[in-house]
Design a protein that fits this description.
The complex is a heterodimer of chains A (209) and B (180). With 209 residues, chain A is an alpha+beta fold. Chain A is built from four helices and ten strands; from the N terminus they run H-H-H-H-E-E-E-E-E-E-E-E-E-E. In chain A, strands 3, 4, 7, 8, 9 and 10 form a six-stranded antiparallel β-sheet that branches. In chain A, strands 1-2-6-5 form a four-stranded antiparallel β-sheet. The longest helix of chain A is centred in the middle third of the chain and has 20 residues. Chain B is built from eight helices and no strands. The chains are: A alpha+beta (209), B mainly alpha (180). Chains A and B meet through helix 1, helix 2 and strand 8 of A and helix 2, helix 3, helix 4, helix 5 and helix 6 of B.
């Protein structure tokens, strides 16, 4: 900076001062360990639900005892997703460059649910986020153990919209978008989840039967 | 040295005492951070203690691909925000001289040092919560902007702006003090 004073930089001095270690009473750590011993055991790791469409379909096939199916089922689901993206694109062409989205929407029964035995087991849900400046966007949620890399979203180069279609079980699901591997953002158009100290910002979708 | 993830596994397998390894690794360091964040020693220790307790209860949700320290820090930052939102007063940003383990050069002129600490405390206190948080995480804890984004949930460009503005503001305040 042009107006720096001669002598030590006060900001550097402040940072040095802030980095100085602080002596902590060892008794406070002993008290903490006493509380830990009295606390209930840690919760078990979360059970992963069906993470994406292909795995969902594989799970359904296993339930039905089917041999692996041809691409017709997934093709139909993908086509449904693409059609919705195109429809959305026609409805909303405003592009501010900011991260925004449409609410995640349930777009129908799983194509595999035509078998009455498993009807309503899964619903097809499409997640969309407009982030034209992003180079990568993924979806993470309780349905995939919050893995920020597993469910990659596909980009529509025309409008910077990212989308992915999943088969989810009915119920309440928490999710967030992970932009460029690092930035966790809640769905701007979705319902915000209750703040949780243990989790990044996230949204909630309720998938009905 | 046994990795944090290995220690977590031992705790999850029922070795509660192994958690003390993580307490030893992070407690002192995070008390220092919390003191600067919430503004007084008492609240800081409470926040850190609460952070470890919450982390212990939720240990099953910790995923190895994330650094344990960063996961803990995210809990801590959120707890500190809650305490700040309760409107507790910031009292003392820097620990008492007796509490601090100062480098030798810092102990040469204790009176001047105390006055300087006081001014620095005031300067840091004048930053808003978000700016102070970003400044401390970047310059004191040494986190990258990507790591801060994961801890705070804020965007990288917003964080860069906060750090830049906090530096400008602190320089302004501290230089003003030096000129008097």
């Amino acid at each position: 900076m042009s107006d720096r004073l001669p002598g030590p930089d006060p900001l550097a001095m402040l940072i040095t001062e802030l980095r100085a270690p602080v002596a902590v009473d060892p008794a406070s750590k002993c008290r903490l360990m006493d509380l830990i011993r009295e606390a209930s055991a840690p919760a078990a790791p979360p059970v992963r639900l069906v993470p994406n469409r292909s795995r969902a379909l594989a799970a359904i096939r296993r339930m039905r005892g089917d041999a692996p199916r041809t691409s017709s089922a997934s093709t139909l689901a993908t086509a449904a997703g693409i059609a919705l993206v195109m429809l959305v694109g026609l409805q909303d062409r405003v592009d501010t460059g900011a991260v925004r989205s449409r609410r995640a929407v349930v777009i129908g029964d799983s194509v595999a649910s035509v078998a009455s035995a498993i009807r309503d087991t899964l619903r097809i849900v499409q997640f969309m986020l407009t982030a034209p400046a992003a180079s990568r966007v993924a979806l993470a949620g309780d349905f995939n153990g919050w893995d920020p890399r597993e469910i990659e979203m596909a980009r529509d180069s025309r409008d910077g919209r990212w989308a992915v279609t999943l088969a989810l079980a009915p119920g309440r699901h928490s999710y967030a978008y992970v932009v460029d591997d690092t930035q966790w953002v809640r769905d701007p158009a979705g319902m915000a989840a209750e703040p949780n100290d243990l989790a990044p910002p996230r949204s909630v979708i309720v998938v009905t039967r | 040295m046994e990795s944090d993830a290995a220690v977590v596994k031992r705790v999850l397998n029922g070795e509660v005492e192994a958690f003390s390894i993580l307490v030893e690794r992070y407690f002192d360091h995070y008390v220092r951070f919390a003191v600067h964040l919430v503004g007084n020693r008492e609240d800081a220790e409470e926040v850190v203690q609460d952070t470890f307790l919450r982390a212990y209860r939720a240990l099953g949700r910790y995923e190895e691909r994330e650094r344990f320290g960063a996961w803990l820090l995210r809990i801590l930052v959120n707890r500190a925000r809650t305490v700040s939102a309760m409107g507790r007063r910031r009292e003392k940003l820097f620990p008492d001289q007796a509490d601090a383990v100062l480098p030798e050069t810092a102990q040469a002129h204790p009176e001047e040092r105390a006055a300087l600490r006081e001014e620095m405390a005031r300067a840091l206190d004048q930053l808003g919560r978000d700016q102070r948080e970003a400044f401390l995480l970047h310059y004191v804890e040494g986190l990258s902007y990507e790591e801060i984004a994961a801890v705070t949930g804020s965007g990288i460009s917003a964080l860069k702006m906060r750090v830049k503005r906090s530096c400008e503001r602190l320089r302004e305040i501290l230089q003003g003090v030096n000129r008097v």
